[in-house]
Amino acid sequence: MQTMSPKVLVADDSLAVHQIFRNALSVGHFAKIVHAFDGVECLEALDQGMDIAFIDIHMPKMSGMDALWAARTAGNKTFVTLISGRSNQRCVELARKLDAYELLIKPFGKDEIDAIVKTYGRISAPMRVLLVDDSQSLLKIMRKVLAKSIFHLDIEAENEPGVALARCHAKPFDVVFLDVNMPGLDGIQTLSRIMRVRPQTKVVMMSGEHNAPRERQALDLGAAATMHKPFFPTEIDAILHQVFGLRSPKLATIGQIRNFEINIHGRTVAVQHTDTGHMYEYVWFRDPPYLRLQLVRENDATNIPAGTLTADVQKVAMLELENAGLLDGVHPD
Fold first, then answer.
1. How far is the C-alpha of 229 from the C-alpha of 311, rounded, in Å?
2. What is the pLDDT of residues 131-160, one digit of tens each?
């Protein structure tokens, strides 16, 4: 965890807002709180180097958005929360493009500020992660997905559960992502042995199928959470917030739009997620269940056994079919 006191910027033209932050951050955990009252002062403070910044979107001389955009363009990586008097889709999308962690809507109080500061402490501290899956191809993909997390992850991977267990014996990991279905020593058995040796380790069980009894069994044995493959960086972030008792940012869920490229070739719908590179191919039908997944691929040359389609992929694929008029009684060629 973070040991040094972070340097905090509060940029807002309201004296009342500055007082809220003074009260919230007065416990003595902060080496310095820098106050800015317009966008120019905000940009100057960001240039000086801040750990955390709370920036109002609307300020005189230069907006908070423009100040943050200028800082990001120059390579600034400050952990930023934007502040606004209201939430709208434009603010949300701009906040995401500028890599803001959260969008605080006025009025807010000490609890919201504390939650963000607590998250910064966990995110900024290196976290040792072990990925365990018997498929080398899936390990490669999952490494890429985890590498896009906002958390600072030091990732190791292992495709043999026995060797993974030996690694857990030899040194502690903060989080273990453990596949349920593996030959020999399966995920449930591996989980049980990890919990005996490293009960503080957060173990997240992964599976390509929905199996409620087995998921309950894993949770009863000490798993911190379960998730289904394939997954995305935002889902990894949500799980890590959950297992470490952190409040998930509203910005991660408000009007979330995922980026997909979709092509329809006869009865085949090809969907590629632009963040992870996952490629989904499935056949569509005019009658339910409409979409039947064929395979998931990392790229054109790699086939990976399909798991369960995520709701986001289903949603955008169905929307594309409707826009193309292919669900109105018209069969594909």
1. 12
2. 999 888 888 888 888 888 889 999 999 989
